[in-house]
Amino acid sequence: MSLRRVSSSLRIFIFLMSVFNRHHLVHGQIVQVLNILYINSEGNIVADRAVDVALNFVRRNPRFGIHIDGFYKVVATGTDPQEFLDMLCAKFNETIVAGKPPDLVLDTTTSGVMSEAVKTFTSALALPTVSGSYGQDGDVRQWRNLDGEQMKYLIQVNPPGDILPEVIRAIILMQNITDAGILFDDSFIFDHKYKSLLQNIPTRHIIAPVEDSRSVKRQLFRFKDLDIVNYFILGRLQTIKMILDSANVNKFFGRKFAWHAITLDKGGLKCACSNASILYVKPEPDPTAKEKLSNLKTTYGLTAEPEISAAFYFDLAFRTFIAAKAMLDAGEWSKNFTYVTCEEYNEDNLPNRKNFDLRRYLKQVSEPTSYGTFVIETNGHSFEEFTAHLEKVSIINSQPVSSEAVGTWKANLNSPIMVKDAASLANFSAVTVYKIVTVLQEPFVMREESEGGGGVKYKGYCIDLIEEIRKLVGFEYEIFVAPDNSFGNMDENGQWNGMIKELIEKRADIALGSLSVMAERENVVDFTVPYYDLVGITILMKKPKTPTSLFKFLTVLETGVWLCILAAYFFTSVLMWLFDRWSPYSYQNNREKYKDDEEKREFNLKECLWFCMTSLTPQGGGEAPKNLSGRLVAATWWLFGFIIIASYTANLAAFLTVSRLDTPIESLDDLSKQYKIQYAPLNGSAAMTYFQRMADIEGRFYEIWKDMSLNDSLSDVERAKLAVWDYPVSDKYTKMWQAMKEAKLPNSLEEAVQRVRDSKSSSEGFGYLGDATDIRYLVMTNCDLQMVGDEFSRKPYAIAVQQGSPLKDQFNNAILLLLNKRKLEKLKEIWWNQNPEKKKCDKQDNQTDGISIHNIGGVFIVIFVGIALACVTLAFEYWWYKYRNPQLNEFAANKQNIEEFNRKMKIAAITDYENVRNRHYQSNFTKKSSLPPVSDQWLQ
Which residues form the signal peptide (predicted)? Predict the structure, then answer.
C-alpha cells in the first residue's frame, strides 16, 4: 500500500523502533542488527550459495557481533526491466511497512538491463549498495555520473570473471602478438569488453562467444580465413576441451598456431590432442587463505564452482556485513535518513545521504579473505587481487606429458606477467607466417635452386628488402609465384589477375615485387609507402653495331677502282721502262754524256716499278728519267697519283665518320614517326595499360571535339571558333596502339628480348617498351642491348597488402626506418652496381670519339707484313749470295787477296821512300827536304 496513506506519527514510531532494535548486547558483545536486501540474477547460482554460506557463517559465529534480522531476496527474471523494477519496489515497500527497511543492498547481478535496473533503483532511492557486477570505467551506465557523496555508498567490486580476461592483454603485450582470436563461454561476460579488452593495442582481434560443438569448427576456420593464428579460450574446462578437440581434428596445431586456455575452474587441462602445446592459465588461492577456504568448504559447505567465484561472493557479502557493523559501532550510520518509497520518489526532491562513507569502512576491513586480497578503489577499479599461474602444458596422444610453470600474473587491470624464463614464453607464441605472392623479375625476385635438393629459394632486391622488414616487424613468410606470373590488371568485367587477385581472394597476405602504385589497384588493395624511386616506361632496342674491319681503309674505294689503280701502276712502269730503253737521250743510251753526273740512274724494269711506287708517297720517286718522253710519263703519273691520294684521304675521313652516326631512334616520338621498327609492350603489363588508355582518351577527346563541331545549336560565331585547319587533338597514341596490336604484343619478357635480339639492326626490327628497371637490368647484363629515350609515365614501386590489413602500418614504419638508415640505397648498390651478373661491355663508338683501332688497325698490319717481307727478302739475298753462286764467291775471295798483297807492297814502298826523305833532310840540316810527304791516296 502507499505510504502516503500512513500517518506521520506511524512513520516516527516505526523509525524509533528500528533505531531501538539496531543493536543489543549478547554476552557483553554489541550485536548490530542488519536488514539486507539481496538482489541476484536468475542464473548466478554460485552467488546464491556463497551468500547463504556467508549468512550461515555470521550466524554461527556470534563473535563478529552481527545479526541479520531481515534478509530480503529478489531474483531478476525475465527480460523486462520495468517489470523487475515494479517487483523491487513492491519488496522495498513491504520492508518499510514491516518496519525493517534495508540497511544495505547486496547486488550480485552480473550485467545487462536487469543489473542496470538495480543500479537505477539504488541510486534513485539513495540506498547503500555493494555490487559485484561486471564492468570497468563507465560500463555501469546508471552509476556513470555519481557525485562525491554517492560514490561513498554506491560501491562496485569486479568479480574474478571480469578481471581474469585481462591476462590476455598482458600476454599479448609481452609476446608482441599481432592477431588474436578470443572464444568464451557463458562463464565469462564480454558485453563490455569487446572494445576495451585490447584497446590501444595494435593487435588485430576477434572476440566471439562459443556456440555449440557443431559450430566450433566453423568458427575456427573463420578465424583461420582471417589469418588469425593466436587463439585464446576462456571458459570451463569442458568448453576448453571441446574446442581443443575440434582444433586437433582440423589440424590447428603446430608452429603456425598458438593456443591459450584460460579458466576459473580447478583441475588439469585435458583434450584428445595428438601433439599440442597449450599455455594454461588458472587462478590459485593465496597460500595464507588456503586454510580458511578449506574450512569454509568442509564446515560451511562452500562447495559451489568455480571455487574462486564462490569465495569472491562469500568474501564480498561477509566483508560488507563487517563494514556495516564497524560503521554502526563508530556511530557514523545515518540516524535521520528517511526512506522514500518508489511511489513517493520525486526528481525535484531527491533523497540524499551525506557523510555516509561505506567505501572507507569496506576498505578498512581487516578480516582475512578466503582466496585473495580485496582492492577497494573507485568503481571499476575495485576487485579481488588473486594470482593466476601460467603453465605450458604438452599433450601427446591425449595424455598430458609435461606441465612447465612459466610465470604468474597478479590479477589487475594493467598488471604485467612475471615470468621465470622470458625465452620459454616468447618461444611459445605462434610463428606469424605470411604468404607472399610475387612475380619473377630480375633483379627484384629470382628463383634459386638450393643445394642438396632442399627446395626452391628466392633471391633478389625484394627478397633482401622483405628480410630487412622481417627483422624489424618480426614474422616468417612463405613465397609463391603468382599463377600467371603477372602483377595484376583489371579486365573489362572488373576482374583482376596476377598478384592483385591473390590478395583480393585472401590467398596471399603480401604482394612483393616491382609493383607499380596505380589508382585502380588502390581501390582493391592497400599500398605501403614506396620503397623504390619513381620508375617510368622506356624503350629497349638492339645496340647498333658500327661495322669495323682492320682493312676498312681498303673499302673506301671499290674493288674495281683498286684494280684500275693497280693496272695503271704496272702499265706506267712498263711504259717508262720502254721509253727509257728506246729513247736515244736516256742514260743507258748516253753513258759517256752523263759520266760526270752524280745521279746515274738506269731505269730498268725494277727501277721503274720502284719509281712509280715511291712517287705516290710524300718521300717522292727520286731521280727522274733523263729523256723528255720518260719525264712526261713520270709527270703524268705524278698528277694521277696526287688526285688519287687526295680523293682517298678525303673519302676515308668521311667514310669512318658516317659509319658512327647511325642513331635512328632517340625518343618515343621518333619511334612513333617511323615504320621500319615494330614496337610493343608486354601483354597485360602496366605499360600496355598506359598506351591502351592513352589511345582511349585520345578517342574520347576526338568524339567530344566532333560533337562540339557538329552541334547544330551553335551560333555562327561559335561554329567559326571551332573551324580549324589542323586537327586539334593528337592521335599519337592511337596510331602507336594500333601499331602495337599489329606488331603483336609479346607474352613474356624473354619473348620480347628475343624479338629485340632478332632485329636486323638498330634501324630495322623490334623495340620493346617496358619498365625502366627491367630494361636497365637487361642492358646491364647484355652487351647487345641499349636503352633509348627518357622515362615517361613514372610511378613508384611499393608493397601491396590486403585492404584493411594492419601490415600496412607496420611495413610503413619499417620502410621509413630503412630509408632513414640508408639501407635501401645499399640494396640498390648491391643489386645494380655490384651485381655479379653485370657485364663489362666494350665502349660504343660515337661521333665524339676518335677512329678506333678496329677500323685503322690494318695499317699496322701492313707495316708488320712489309717488315716481315723485308726480313724474308734479306734472308733470301744472303742465301743466294752465299750458297747459290760459289764461283762468284771464289772470285771475290781471290780479288780480296790480290788487293791485300798490293796494299802490303805499297806500304813497303812508302817506308823506303820515307827513309830516303829523312836522310835527305838530315844532310841539309837547315830546311826540310823538298821531297813531298806520302799521301794516303797512295795506299788506294
Answer: 1-28
